[in-house]
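Render this sequence as a predicted structure.
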Amino acid sequence: MLDQNDMNLLTDMVKSVFDERLEKSETKILEKVDERLEKSEAKILEKVDERLEKSETKILEKVDERLEKSEAKILEKVDERLEKSETKILEKVDERLEKSETKILEKVDERLEKSESMMLNEIERTREILETRIDQIHKNLEEMNQYYHIDRLENDNTTLLLKLIDSLSKRVEELERRTA
C-alpha cells in the first residue's frame, strides 16, 4: 500500500515531467514564432523595397515634389501594413498557443486520471488481500480459543478425577481399617 511519501514522490515526478514538457513546448513555440516573424519581416521588407524602387523610379521620372508626397504616403501605408501584419501574426500566435496549452492540459489530465485509476485499483487489490489474511487470522484465533477452552476443561476434569480418586482412596483405606 502506498504511503504519503510515495504519493508525494509520484506527485513531484508528475509535476517535474509536466514542467519539463511545458518548458520544451514553450521553447519550441517561441522558436517557431521567431522563425515566422523573421520570414514575415523579410517578405514585408522585400515587398516594401520592391515597391519603393518602382515608386522612386516613377517619381524620379516625374517631379521632385511628388517624390516627397509619395514617400510620405508609402511610408504611411507600410506602417499601416506592418501594424496590421504584426497584429494578425500575434493573434494567430495567441490562438495557436491557446490550442497547444489546451491540448497539453487535456493530455496531462488524461494521464493523471489513468494514474489515479491504476493506483485505486492497486489499493483495492491490496485491501482484498489484507481482508483475506485478516479473515484467516481470525479463523485461526477462533480455533486457538476453542483449543484453549477444551484444554482447560480437560485440566478441570483431570483435577476433579484426581480429587475423586484421592477421596475414594481415603474411603478404601478407611474401610480396610474398619474391616481389619
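Summary. The chain has a mean pLDDT of 87. Residues 64-179 form the longest helix (116 residues).
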